[in-house]
Amino acid sequence: MEDTKELFLLDGSSLLHRAFYALPDSLQTSDGEYTNGVFGFTKMLLRLIEEEDPDSLAVAFDLAGPTFRHEEYEEYKANRKETPDKLKPQFGLMKEVLEAFKIPVLELEGYEADDIVGTLSRQAEDEDYQVTIVTGDRDALQLVTENVKIRYTKRGITNIVDYDLEKIREEYELEPKKLIDKKGLMGDKSDNIPGVDGIGKKTSTKLLHQFGSLEEVLNNIDQVSGKKRKQTLKEQADRARMSKKLATIKLDIPLECDLDEFKLEEPDQDKLVDILSRLEFNSLLKEFGGHETLNFTDEFEIITDLTAIDELLSMLNEAEKVGFKFKFTSTELYQQQIEGLTLANNETAYYIDASELEIAELIDRLKPYFEDPELNKLCLNTKENLIYLKEQGVEVKGLSFDLLLADYLLHPSAKEQDLESVLTDQLQMELEEVESEIEAEVQQVRVLFKLEKELIDKLENKDLMELFVEVELPLISILAQMELNGIAVDKDMLQELSDKLKEKLDSIRSQAYELAGEEFNLNSPKQLGKILFEKLGLPVIKRTKTGYSTSASVLEKLEDKHEIVPLILEYRKYQKLKSTYVDPLPDLINPKTDRIHTSFNQLVTATGRLSSTDPNLQNIPIRTEEGREIRKVFIAEEGKELLAIDYSQIELRVLAHISQDENLMNAYMEGQDIHTKTAAEVFGVEASEVSYEQRRRAKAINFGIAYGISPWGLAKDINVSKKEAEDYIDQYLNRYPKVKEYMDRQIKQAKEEGYVTTILNRRRYLPEINSSNYHRRSFGERMAINTPIQGSAADIMKLAMLKSAQVLDERELDAKILLQVHDELIFEVPPEELEEVQQVVKSEMEDVIQLDVPLKVDLKVGTNWRDMDEIE
User: According to CATH, what is the number of the domain 177-249?
Assistant: First the structure.
């Protein structure tokens, strides 16, 4: 007797939908291509093949367009949401994956995947196969027989229920075929099959037990209980027959298939590795040998005694380049502790175990090598290593390669910036597992030599080497020094501000309770929703899964409906200031320095701007008096002053330069106030007659254009109608025609090349620009316009930081750069140096790059970051 043959038939359309909704859409490639559905489906497919080892397997998909069911009933599936734009492209990707697996993909115009699966299951039964249908669609349960079972993905892709005859009878109290009659009677909301009004699950089952089939129910309506039900069945008999027809999976569609073609083969290894690499499915790639495994633990020595360091120093004397990395037990500023240091060249490596060594003596012996500009240095997590060495009085020179920085310039939108992600996502490599932490440290330094050439070649091919070598690499040392510098904080003032905000919040809370007529938790959307929409009867604007929406946009629409609403908005503003900014600050004061040391992140934003954390100084709100109060707590050290030097309208100057619009350029060449000029031209008045409100609106238009703003966005910003905002934008673009040409040119370039560039050739990839989804595509277009402007401003600011630090160093001044926030640099300066620092830094910042319009900086000085006097 022959072994039973097994055939698995997968409903690809339903499974891909299930996987898409089961996994977060944050699963994307580094170029922004959505892959969550494909990843989930592929994982499920691999598990199925591994666990079941089927003889044969095929996947069926729906085709776009109407089926015979739509011809029968135009409203069939009319209530279904359109396939999300993030999912649509994944169907093509999934089919590429299946092709690499050598798994047949089946589609037939005019029919659904169900009909393909149904027809094949009957054909396979006739040829003595045991069939398993894998689907996320309950419709397929009607196909169950002695030889056909259903594997139903109840939820997501892992919650699976197997249905055989026994399970169907137990759960539905009917034979599988009778489930079609049941749908004819009760309909199916998900497919918009109407059924008969008033007949649900229980009644349909009861009628089928009594009469056997839909047809018999309709032939014996007089015997059906209930006057109203009889009447409805008579009136809707044809609708019931049609519903049954719509619910019936076809078992005889014109498919010409030889089941032998479905035999499971070995995948096409090259194709599979290629597609999984492109989709960055690194965890899956490992299963198919898609990663080169690297091992660098040969030939390294552990040094535990400084008397044995001579061989290492000999290597350093002869090396042209060296990789280094400290192993920290603590990276807290001014409290850093190391337990080891790896130093390596291309041939060998040394790990210095510092646990028993005199650290000061070790660093002293190595200082000449760290400070030798001729000895090229390669590093990983460079900034924290430089911070530690600066604390020890060592200034690293000759830094030539930072792995993560190189990768950041190549993949500015990558979700993760760490060694493992770079290896797996970009290079399809992995480090061999090692037994000890020391071996892991050595591997991480040795791998720098392996990857340096590959990444440098890529940077050169994309014309990014100058940006890497001249700007980003030297900036690491500047940022390390700024973090060490930190900024002083007035602790008493901070406490006063916290108390003041608490009083304000208590007062608002009391007023809200009075208006509501009861106490409630203002921070609870659920309780607030009940007060606003049930007790006070305000109109419901939007609902969420858990109840009423009380988002800011909803509350703004209700502001004039009840006096409690502005109070809630005010409460949220103060609550955010207190909880996000004021209350965390005391914990961030370093006990050794009494200063706050924010971290500057070089590898985060896609535009090249720096970001900051602990605290995030970029986000302190400065448009409100309360937000500005927070800046007041940041102060100069006693006996010194804070100097703020701020680029004036740098993004608009960059726009004038890259658009080459004569009107815009002339305004800056002639030193005109650009916002007044724009107001005069857009509103058709003399410059001398421009009102404060007109200038404010013109400012929003100027910066809005630079950010690729939509009419709707501008309307919201300046509180006018969408039509008025459209008119303002049109008038602006008529006055500055080359700005419009620039915008069109950027969008065209991004669509054709997939990326845009800044003045220093920094790239940003924009996969969204060709999306079929309007909102995603619009975002891509805005970024195509904005990134060259904002990114170029970021490039200029980085050059300014380098030049400012260099001039302070060359002149041996005590002034220090403390912070970089937006377009502003904050210095701490002894009074006797103030005039010199103003002059030299102003000069460096304004001449740092030659644009076709002048760069201009504004200067302010004061003892705290809020109360600063302008310097003419």
Answer: 1.10.150.20
